[in-house]
Each structure stands twice: as C-alpha cells, then as structure tokens.
Amino acid sequence: MSYPEPRYLAEAGAHSGVLRTADTPPDLSMASGTQVHYLGTGGSTNGAFGLYRWEMGPRPSGPGAHFHRTMTESFYVLSGTIRLFNGEKWAEGKPGDFLFVPEGGVHAFRNESGEPASMLILFTPGAPREAYFEELADISNTGRQLGPEEWTELFLRHDQYMV
C-alpha cells in the first residue's frame, strides 16, 4: 500500500485547522434521548470522511441489520455498553472496542443496556449522513409513523439497505 495522490499542492502549509471543543452543544437531538455531534462532516472534510459522536440515552435504540454500497462505517465505543453486530454475531461493545465494516458489510448497533452509552461513528468517504440523521430525528421527534414502503424509500435514498 502506498500514499494516495496529493490533494494539497501549494508549496507552503495552510493555517486551516478547525477546533470543535468538547462543550459544543449537540447538533441534533432525538426523542429517544440520542444526541448527535457533527464532528467532521463530508462537507467540512472535503469528502474525506464523516465523523460523529453518537450519544444514546438509556432507552433502547439503534438501527436493524443493514449495509451500505458507497461507504465504510466504523464504530469506536467511548462509554457504556453498545451491542455491535458484525454481520455474523452480536458482541457487547465496551469502551475502547472498535468495529470496522467495509462497503457491503452487514452490521447494526443497539444500546439495550438501560444506561447511557456513546461512541464515535466514522464514514469513509464523507457521505452526506446529516440529512439522514435529521430525517430520523424529525420522525422521532414528531411521532410520525412511516409505513414499510416509506421506510424502504428513506433507507434507499441514504444508501442503507436493510437485511
């Protein structure tokens, strides 16, 4: 494996780092108690990656088994216990545990512990996941009920194929 082709071609380095402090409020809150922090979006990283801090409340939450065709997804547990599914089996993810899922890899996650839990979720390349998260929050926060066809359309629009 070698380094990728250069993406920055100027002679001198740029002063372009962006700091997001830990006390920045969440960008999104869901009725389930989940709060999402947009640490680095595809838009802010020039499409390189999307990184989100996903803080789940004590109520059970998380998607069913699914896969993506256009991006990888990685999970790093920060606190609590998060059930992680690698396509074959579920494992109790504890702080420091990491799960990488390549394109096409079936996966899921859930907080069923009854306690808050948090993790980092990394997508590569940086797909526009914010629109998906915001649609889920709107559905959750308004109590709107979707039928099976509406859920399928929503998932497919956001490169999420349920299994």
Short description:
This protein is of the alpha+beta class. Helices cover 15% and strands 31% of the residues. The protein has a 6-stranded antiparallel sheet with strand order 1-2-3-10-5-8, with helices on one face. Strands 7-6-9 form a 3-stranded antiparallel sheet, with no helix packed on it. A two-stranded antiparallel ribbon has the order 4-11.
Could you characterize what this model shows?
The chain is of the alpha+beta class and 163 residues long. The chain is built from 2 helices and 11 strands. It has helices spanning 129-142, 148-157, and strands at residues 28-29, 35-40, 50-56, 66-67, 72-79, 82-85, 90-93, 98-101, 108-110, 117-124, 161-162. The protein has a 6-stranded antiparallel sheet, with helices on one face. A hairpin with a 4-residue loop joins strand 6 and strand 7. The protein is globular and about 55 Å long.
